[in-house]
Amino acid sequence: MASLEDLTTPALVVDGDTLEHNLTTMATALPGARCRPHIKAHKTTALAHRQRAIGHVGFTCATAREIIGLARAGLGDDLLLANEVLDSEQLAALAGVDGRVTIAVDSEVTADAAADAGIRECLVDVNVGMPRCGCLPEDAGRIADHARARGLDVRGVMGYEGHLVDMVDRAAREEQTAECMAHLARAHLAVGGDVISVGGTGTYDCNHFGTEIQAGSYALMDTHYARLPDLPFRRALFVLATVISVNQREGFAVANCGLKSLGMDHGTPEIDGATVWYCSDEHTVFSVGGELPNVGDRLRVWPAHIDPTIAYHEHMHVLVGEDVAETWTVDLRGW
Amino acid sequence: MASLEDLTTPALVVDGDTLEHNLTTMATALPGARCRPHIKAHKTTALAHRQRAIGHVGFTCATAREIIGLARAGLGDDLLLANEVLDSEQLAALAGVDGRVTIAVDSEVTADAAADAGIRECLVDVNVGMPRCGCLPEDAGRIADHARARGLDVRGVMGYEGHLVDMVDRAAREEQTAECMAHLARAHLAVGGDVISVGGTGTYDCNHFGTEIQAGSYALMDTHYARLPDLPFRRALFVLATVISVNQREGFAVANCGLKSLGMDHGTPEIDGATVWYCSDEHTVFSVGGELPNVGDRLRVWPAHIDPTIAYHEHMHVLVGEDVAETWTVDLRGW
What we know:
Two copies of one chain form a homodimer.
Chain A: E1 11-15, H1 16-29, H2 45-53, E2 58-61, H3 64-72, E3 78-81, H4 88-95, E4 101-105, H5 108-116, E5 121-125, H6 140-149, E6 153-159, H7 170-191, E7 195-198, E8 212-213, E9 237-247, E10 252-255, E11 270-271, E12 274-280, E13 283-288, E14 298-302, H8 306-310, E15 315-320, E16 323-329
Parallel strand pairs in A: 1-15, 2-3, 3-4, 4-5, 5-6, 6-7, 7-8
Antiparallel strand pairs in A: 1-9, 9-10, 9-14, 10-13, 11-14, 12-13, 15-16
């Protein structure tokens, strides 16, 4: 069995025990269909299988390719594309998968596109305060009526309080989530249906209104979510890198991972015991309080945001102890 | 022939005429071996073939995979891996390619690793002021001696003034580049060899010391480099996206490209005539001065930094007029 030392760097590595802790913690808090894991966070069918095995039947996706891949892998019991799609080829492919596909719509145009392509089920996506997709709450009933008139089965509503999920103060997060959900409740009254699909990792136990939580980051976590002191999930994913250069006079070292192995929208990654100066395409430059590492040393670089980090990698290696127990293909990248 | 309207979005699109302008401009200013195009910027063998066809014989690479891919494609006349590598498997693969491979070394350890793997040629990488790889100028001679004692042919020196290439003030850029090159000149005196490999797109005509310029961004450009008023290169690359949601009350619209189709280290992308609010995984939210676009409209999203943008995409489509004349595979991604 390979060890960490055998991996060519940069390499995406999952700590298997921590992943297990995170999956178990979520499945205990939100068992079965109460959690609809978001696949966009990891884009990896093998990890979705783990989430299915622990009881989560349905999945949330952000792209057509994620839906199609999961269905091909036999994970198509209840797939939600939590995003608006207008491309007729993609919609036709989604309508043809071997599985149950529900799609978000937030306008007559997106409902028409879904109906025209033969999609059978939808949720009405409602804006609950974050400036992104989702209709106004007062328009939700009209859009649901339109969708039903076009032959779609409207299963309920969706609303994502994404502007709150990373709020460090839990009391404020919980209170403001409740305010957002009041908008969604109003929309749901007009729309009807059994499904109220909401939330993310940061509100998994703050959102008391949804019937299901669309949490993705909880499985692997990142330094941005790790700032929330109340979350029981732990960082399970790092980029393994090699120190390729050390500058003793200036007091810094260089690891061989950078902008093409780390999503940067939430800032630079972290290295335990070090200060990261900056990243360039294939480099992370850092200093440490004490003695600098040696050329050839390996270290763990913790990404600030896992979603765009993982999307750069072809594989993730699963570590159990010091051994690489499995290597998973990040097979759901692209669109 | 497909048109822009036929592409599934998000899609990476190259304006063919602008690319041609950029390639011709560079090949006129720095013909043949005076420019050693940096492949990390585009990671696309088909585009490297265009750079070869216009006269550039050698290429700069940042990863083993870029070198190996170019050699396999018959572009291995003179390949420089402008980065330190310690992985013995990667080094052995590099030593075995059908082509000429030169590798950067900046320490005894990296020179030893190259020699042990059967690499035949190297450059001594010298730090000229940017905190990243490269030995101190005063250590360059010692490292060259060590490399030669280990059987490596030392072709010369390399020094990258990366902290200056995006300086808007041309006079300051040129002056400070000269100061950096004074360090490299000192190192070159001690090292010897014919090659002095330097620079980037921003200093392609400010660096008067190097024998060759490692420019990459010039071919496709981005909004960050486009801030430099003296550069004759024009933005040739955009992400084609579809408007999937419009919020008339709040005055914004949402395009279906985001953190997984755009490198974010240089900030948010630009949309002509619009203000970009932020990006999330699969969304770019923006407002416009006048009337908002319609759901279904397509638009061009200009990346702030092409290198980490292109690394997310499987293909780039080459536009001539309104037609997609070719689709290139971004085949050199990964490590």
